[in-house]
Specification:
- The structure is a single chain.
- This protein has one domain.
- By secondary structure, the chain is mainly alpha-helical.
- The protein has 3 helices and no strands.
Length: about 80
């Protein structure tokens, strides 16, 4: 019984994915851009709402190393 449910769920998800791809492929470029920008806006809202400030700071500082490699900082390695 459980195996049939797993198979049915997988088949349903595959069908939904195929239908979504079909609908997306039939859209105009403007409609596609609208959907993509809408998804990006929703993602930014979720990020701002639910990601803690400490995590945001880690990602913000990751690209601002100024060329300094901080690997092993504080570990006592002097090589």
């Amino acid at each position: 019984m459980l195996q049939n449910k797993k198979n049915s769920t997988g088949l349903l998800l595959a069908g939904l994915a195929a239908f979504a791809y079909y609908k997306y492929s039939k859209m105009s470029e403007e409609e596609k851009q609208n959907i993509i920008s809408s998804l990006k806006d929703q993602g930014k809202k979720l990020y701002d709402q639910y990601v803690p400030e400490e995590v945001k700071n880690v990602f913000a500082n990751k690209g601002n190393t100024g060329g300094n490699n901080n690997f092993g900082a504080g570990s006592g390695y002097s090589g």
